[in-house]
Every structure is written in C-alpha cells, then in structure tokens.
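seq:
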Amino acid sequence: MVKQIILPLLILSSQIASAQLVTENFGSGANAFSMDFVTIGNPGNAADTTGAPNPVGAVAYTYQIGKYEVSREMIEKATSAGGLGITLEDMTSYGGNGANRPATGVTWNEAARFVNWLNTSKGYQAAYNFTTSGANDNITLWGAGDYSGSNQYRHKDAYYFLPTLDEWYKAAYGKADGTGWYNFPNGSNSAPTAVASGTAANTAVYGQSASAGPADITNAGSLSPYGTMGQGGNVWEWNETAYDGSNNSASEKRERRGGSWYFVDSISLDASNRGNGDPANGNVYIGFRVASVPEPGSASLVILGLAAVLARRRRSARGVAARR
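struct:
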C-alpha cells in the first residue's frame, strides 16, 4: 500500500514542481518591484553529452530560475534602495532605455552585488563575498565551511544567486519531463525564427540591426519547455560558473550563454555554443537572470494534501473489505 501511495505522489510532485510559477517581491515604496521564477524539477537528471561543455546540465536538486531576464527598472530600483552603485549601458542607439528592457552593461561583479542585495534585503545570507566597496570590484572566495562542493563563489546558505552553467543549461535546453535535451531553448532541435520581438511559437530575438536593440524581457520569443523566456537571443546572459569550470579564481572569465539580438546566425542560441567574459566588463549585448532555491509553498501543501486523501481512501477501502 505504501508503494501504491508514494509512486503517484512522486510523479505528481515532479509535474507540479516543473510547472510552478513563483512571484517574489522586493523593495518598497517607489523602489518596489517583483520577479517571476519558474521551478525546475526532475532533480538528479542525467547530463547532456552532446552539448558544450561535455557533459553539462546535470542538477541534483530542484531549483528556481527567473522566467525573464533582469530588467533595467529592477537594477535602477535596487541600486536606489541599496546604494549599489551599479551602472547600466546607455541604449539610446540600441532601441532605447525602456524600463522593461534587459539590464545591459551590467558586469558579472555588479550582477553579483544585485543578487546579494536581493538576499540581504529579505534577511538571507549574501551569495557572494565582497570585501571591498567598489561596485565593480572582484569577489573574494568563500572559505572552508561557507561553500558546498568545489564552488567557492557561492555561499551554501544563499537563497538567490546567479545560475551556474548546469542550472542555466537545464532550464534552457532540458525537456520538462527530465528525459532528454533539445538543441535550442524553445523545445526544438530546429533553429527558431528570428524576430524583433513577440511571443509566437518557435521564435527568438536575434539577427536584428544594431538600432533595434533587445526586446522587452516579457516579449523576447517563445518559452522554453520549463517556461523561461529569452534564454535564446535577446542578450547573452552571465552564468555564475567560471569558463574553465573551476570556480576557484575570482578573476577567471565567466561563462555566458544564449546569444543576443545582434548576432545574425542562430548558432549562438545552440546548446553547443559558449561565450565568456571578464567579470569586470559589461557591454550592450550582455544581461543576466537570477536563480534561487525553492521555498516550501503551495506545491508541498498540495502534495501533502493528496497524500492524506490517498491514505484516507486506502483506509476506507480496507474498512469496506473488512465489512464484506
């Protein structure tokens, strides 16, 4: 009987976790903003052995990642509220400085400071260890006991963080049932159609003129199987992971993925394509999104509720059988 209850619960748990959308609120008053996260389930999935690097994409735990890229408005409000000193690229010549456009020109170091503020503004542990005050200064590696595994960049107790290469890759290219991989972050092995903006199926924002610039973060192509938008095209995105995979050098170049609106060829959107950048350098083509660990919420409550219902049904069935 226990197996009969647990098996459907495990299946349902995976389905709920993969579909769950969570909205988190930050700041207050004039500096208030919200961020949507999708839950990436199917923990313990097998890595992709056809992508780059090889293998890639195996994640042992459930996590959440921003449905959209971080916007200019989010950076401006967090910088105002927290005195972060982050500067954005002037995109006047690249489609304009709209509030809902991706936060371009933000360096990896600045993105890490933004993520730290997301944590500390809610009373959580900062993800990255900054021991100097300059907005674009490099991090200091965490010491023994503060990080997990070999990743000396991220504090083990942080709630929000920049996605590792594996976390980013799984959200972009992984099948939503955890059974395999696609070549492009739109649930397809065929290149998406290039568009300037929109949400039509099998589209992505790439191959545009310099003057067009990236699309608004909520209008940047079709969704990935897990429900993220703009992981292919729009802007390259910073990953937490060092390009050499070591995560034990503060100055090591960082991985960036996904291509941008200005790259003509769809190859930059492909799972086999990689980019990198110095953590202190930003430009008009690079933005980022945030990841997090899931907090116990509605999915857990639904699962527990279903467990109770199934248990009651089993007890009721036993009672009927005993009376016969």
